[in-house]
UniProtKB/TrEMBL annotation:
This is PspA/IM30 family protein. Belongs to the PspA/Vipp/IM30 family. Residues 219-241 are annotated as: Disordered. It comes from Spirulina subsalsa FACHB-351. InterPro entries: PspA_VIPP1. Residues 223-241 have a biased composition (Polar residues). Pfam families: PspA_IM30.
Length: 258
């Protein structure tokens, strides 16, 4: 294989690759419809020209046929008048017009066939263009859907899903930790409440003990009445002791309540 052949193949390959990459399906579809419509316009013009030619041929045929009939009548008239030379000339003109008419008739038949063929091709092309327009819209919708899907997949692929899932798992663990702390606080609050009720329930024993202490203090003060200072009576001393005990009792109660 020659060097120039290899270079030519490489150039063609690169050009084909560039053309393939540059091809946009939507644009190519639109251009294809435009090309077919241009072909339709040209075909319509061709049909119009063929019909016009057919009409002219038909007119010429009718004219020559009419002239042949006229020369036939003139030949008969000349023969009736006894002028055979004029009759012969008329018949000669009739033959010329008749031959021309025969040729035009054959040509007219060919043109008629061509016109009918062009008309059928025109109808077929119009049908193909209509079908192509419908398919074009469907294909464009499929192209747009494929592009959207490709873009979505590209976006998903470019996303850092590993770090996102890691952050999600960390937040999930944090939520579990917050729930555990909330549950622990609730349980601790319940224990403290139980302790408070236990303290209240045990308050009766303290009152009983205070009452016993009060009774002992009142009972132990009787033997010492003689030692009271002058001007002080036992009743007064007892009242003072009760007030002191009551004040101490109120202080203890206040401390317990706090």
């Amino acid at each position: 294989m020659g060097l120039f052949d290899r270079i030519g193949r490489v150039v063609r390959a690169n050009l084909n690759d560039m053309v393939s990459k540059a091809e946009d399906p939507e644009k190519i579809l639109e251009q294809s419809i435009l090309d077919m419509q241009e072909d339709l316009v040209q075909l319509r013009q061709a049909v119009a020209r063929a019909i016009a030619t057919q009409k002219r041929t038909e007119q010429q045929y009718n004219k020559n046929q009419s002239e042949a009939n006229t020369w036939q009548q003139r030949a008969q008239l000349a023969l009736q008048k006894g002028d055979e030379g004029l009759a012969r000339e008329a018949l000669q003109r009739k033959k010329t017009s008749g031959d021309t008419a025969a040729q035009l008739k054959s040509q007219l038949e060919v043109q008629n066939t061509q016109v009918q063929t062009l008309k059928r091709n025109l109808v077929a092309l119009e049908s193909k263009i209509s079908e192509a327009k419908t398919k074009k819209d469907m294909l464009k919708a499929r192209v747009q859907a494929a592009k959207a899907n490709e873009q979505l997949q590209s976006t998903i692929s470019s996303m850092n899903t590993g770090s996102a899932m890691g952050a999600f798992e960390r937040m999930e663990e944090k939520v579990l930790e917050l729930e555990a702390r909330s549950q622990a606080a609730h349980e601790l609050g319940g224990v403290d409440l139980e302790s408070q009720f236990a303290a209240l329930e045990s308050g009766g024993d303290v009152d009983d003990e205070l009452a016993a202490m009060k009774a002992q203090m009142l009972g132990g003060s009787a033997p010492d009445q003689q030692a009271l200072p002058q001007g002080t009576t036992p009743a007064t001393n007892t009242t003072q002791n009760v007030e002191v005990v009551d004040a101490e009792l109120e202080e203890l109660r206040r401390q317990l309540n706090q």
